[in-house]
Design goal:
Shape: globular
Structural class: alpha+beta
CATH superfamily: Sporulation-specific cell division protein SsgB
Mean pLDDT: 88
Low-confidence stretches: none
Number of strands: 7
CATH architecture: Roll
CATH topology: Transcriptional Co-activator pc4, Chain A
Distance between the termini: 22 Å
CATH class: Mainly Beta
Number of domains: 1
Strand order of the largest sheet: 4-3-2-1-7-6-5
Strand content: 35-45%
Radius of gyration: 17 Å
């Protein structure tokens, strides 16, 4: 079983309503999928009443803490010195959330302690080779 880093975090759902809504999410990093990280949103904020999981490159979050990053379904950028915005695009629409940057940095630090930057592909290659060897009889 691969090691997993999970960290609860709070964010604010940005809408056109007068007040933003605070949301508790889970930040997740799984050593079995070392290039990606996930944000798990509770069912209470989804359109279909089910938990929503967004997966995207760990590097994207890392870069987005310093400068606008991403051109696809997930975009990340700093908002002042202490906040970070994540924007998610899906066929159903666009969602924007604002995080305090510090919990995101702590999460990344924990994930890099598990799988250092630049070692992600090496871990996948080692697991693939071990799998091939173990299945060879």
């Amino acid at each position: 079983m691969s090691p997993v880093v999970e960290q609860p975090a709070k964010c604010r759902l940005i809408t056109d309503a007068p007040h933003s809504k605070a949301v508790s999410v889970t930040l997740r990093y799984d050593g079995a999928d070392p290039l990606a990280m996930r944000i798990v949103f509770p069912a209470t904020v989804s359109l279909d009443g089910k938990e929503v999981v967004w997966a995207f490159a760990r590097d994207l979050l890392d870069q987005g803490l310093r400068m606008p990053s991403g051109t696809g379904d997930v975009q990340v950028w700093p908002c002042g010195r202490a906040q970070t915005i994540l924007e998610f695009h899906s066929p159903e629409g666009v969602a924007m959330v604002q995080f305090d940057a510090m919990p995101l940095r702590r999460f990344l630090k924990s994930s890099y302690a598990m799988v250092p930057a630049g070692e992600e592909r090496h871990d996948v290659q080692v697991e693939n080779e071990l799998g091939r060897l173990l299945h060879r009889t």
